[in-house]
Design goal:
This protein is α/β, with parallel strands linked by helices. It has a domain at 61-130: Nucleotidyltransferase, domain 5, CATH 3.30.420.270. The protein contains three helices and five strands. The radius of gyration is 34 Å and the shape is rod-shaped. The termini are far apart.
Length: 138
């Protein structure tokens, strides 16, 4: 006595069920379609070519520095904010104006460097550069 009926149609299935495979492939396709535009966020820009030599200095140079503790220096002379603004206003009156190089210590806070930049802008100096050191990693 058999507990179930066995028809002639109950044969072994010899074909692969493609529905789960198609579902997985569609999910992967959607994931790639969503993530690829996010990864390619670069804007194609043609940058100007420059030489690797330092440009010739037409006038004098004024170096403004901030050390790690936030003290200000004009060239190598320590100064306070009032003395700094006085020297910057005097430099702005020169013809031609000197190039101002701003150097901040790597451990200095961001605010003193911005104060130097703002003081140079308020005094009317137009040639302001932020100095960096070259990458010395091997």
């Amino acid at each position: 006595m058999a507990f179930g009926t066995q028809d002639d149609t109950d044969e072994v299935m010899n074909e692969i069920n493609m529905t789960p495979l198609v579902d997985v492939m569609l999910v992967l396709l959607i994931i790639f379609m969503v993530t690829i535009p996010v990864l390619q966020h670069a804007i194609p820009v043609q940058l100007p070519q420059v030489s690797s030599t330092a440009p010739a200095q037409a006038g004098s140079t004024l170096v403004l520095s901030v050390d790690a503790s936030g003290r200000y220096f004009v060239n190598t002379d320590p100064t306070d904010l009032a003395g700094l603004e006085t020297r910057l206003q005097a430099a702005a009156q020169q013809n031609p104006q000197p190039t101002v190089q701003i150097r901040g210590h790597r451990d200095a806070a961001y605010e003193p460097v911005v104060v130097l930049m703002e003081a140079a802008r308020r005094s009317g100096l137009t040639k302001v550069a932020i100095m960096t050191s070259p990458d010395r990693r091997p």
